[in-house]
Amino acid sequence: MSFRIGQGIDFHQLVEGRDLWLGGVLIPHTKGALGHSDADVLLHAICDAMLGALGLGDIGLHFPDTDPNYKGIDSKVLLQRCYGMMREHGYGIVNIDSTILLQAPKIRPHVEQMRNTMALILHLPVDAISIKATTTERLSFIGREEGIVATANVLLQKI
Ligand code: MG
């Protein structure tokens, strides 16, 4: 069997007046992530991990933030496109493990909805998708609630 592994990381600023989209889910909060798209840091990290596993570059190459077509785009559409590229290359996902780094709000109440949302797009059982979250104990730009980070690892299998 042929396996490929990928990792992704993404950063966005948190600002007032923006929605906070995470894992394809709108999270109630006083701030949201700033970006050209909906700035869903978790889906971007997962897209990058999938593209990385395939050796296809990164999300900025395929969906440039200078392209008006991607302004305000729902990152679930980007994830769907990455899924399509992966299938065209003959691969499927074995599992995803991810971590969101943010000070607030609490993410755990939303994790099941995020997993279900991604499972539908990626044609995966929910237990193949892990989403963890941690604060940085108020350290750094994350602890000051100025930004949010997500990391993801994916394992692909030739099918
Ligand atoms: Mg991003």
Explain what this protein looks like in three dimensions.
32% of the residues lie in helices and 31% in strands. The chain has a single domain, classed as 2-Layer Sandwich (60s Ribosomal Protein L30, Chain: A), CATH 3.30.1330.50. The chain is built from 5 helices and 7 strands, in the order E-E-E-E-H-H-H-E-H-E-H-E. It has helices spanning 41-54, 59-62, 75-88, 108-122, 140-143, and strands at residues 3-15, 20-22, 25-27, 32-33, 91-101, 129-134, 147-158. It is globular. Helix 1 (41-54) packs parallel to helix 3. The chain has 159 residues and is of the alpha+beta class. A 5-stranded mixed sheet has the order 4-1-7-5-6. Helix 4 (108-122) links the parallel strand 5 (91-101) and strand 6. Bound molecules: magnesium ion. Magnesium ion binds at residues 10, 12, 35, 41, 44.
Quick take:
The protein has 159 residues and is α+β, with helices and mostly antiparallel strands.
Q: CATH first level: which class?
A: Alpha Beta
> Terminal Cα separation, in Å?
9 Å
Averaged pLDDT = 97
Q: How many strand segments?
A: 7
CATH architecture: 2-Layer Sandwich
Bound molecules: magnesium ion
Structural class: alpha+beta
Helix content: 25-40%
Per the principal axes of the C-alpha atoms, what is the gross shape? globular
Write the H/E string, N to C. Answer: EEEEHHHEHEHE
Give the strand content.
Answer: 25-35%
CATH homologous superfamily heading:
2-C-methyl-D-erythritol 2,4-cyclodiphosphate synthase
Unreliable runs, pLDDT <50, ≥5 residues? none
- The value of Rg in angstroms is 15 Å
Number of domains: 1
The total of helices stands at 5
Q: Might you state the CATH topology name?
A: 60s Ribosomal Protein L30, Chain: A
Strand order of the largest sheet: 4-1-7-5-6
Characterize the main sheet: 5 strands, mixed
